[in-house]
Amino acid sequence: MQIKILNWVAVSGWFVVIIMLILLAKSQPMFVTVYDRYHNYSPSTTWDSSLTEKIFYLLLITFFVSILGLFFDKRRQHRKEDKYHLSLVAQAVISFAGILIYFML
After folding, report:
1. What confidence score (pLDDT) does residue 70 get?
2. In angstroms, rounded to a whole number, what is the distance separating the alpha carbons of residues 62 and 100?
């Protein structure tokens, strides 16, 4: 039962990571192109702060859920052939790096 729950946590975590990447792409400032200059169009040159705040909260949730999943994964390690879910480790590392980048910018 715990293995199925950990698998669902890992899969749902990757869906959240994909959602964060989509939000990140939408929150980026637009690049000014030659076409924009020619037609005197000035796109937004700043990050969308409401979307970046949502990304930050999703990063926090993903980080804590993956750490909690790793904790439960550690508790069920009884045999030598039992292994950690590397997906949860990757999610924790990616989320932690995203949190650090958020505070650096």
Report:
1. 87
2. 14
The C-alpha angle 73, 77, 83, rounded to 5 degrees, equals 75
Q: pTM for the full model?
A: 0.78
Q: Hey, how many other C-beta atoms are within 10 angstroms of the C-beta on 45?
A: 9
Reported as a single tens digit per residue, the pLDDT across 23-47 is 988 888 877 778 777 887 777 778 8
Q: Which residue has the tokens 């009884």?
A: 78
Amino acid at 32: V
Structure token digits, residue 25: 């792409």
Exposed, middle or buried by CB within 10 Å (0-12, 13-18, 19+), for 19?
middle
DSSP state, residue 8: H
Query: What is the spatial distance between Cα 50 and Cα 33, in angstroms, rounded to a whole number?
Result: 25
- Residues contacting residue 68 through CB under 8 Å, at least 6 positions apart: none
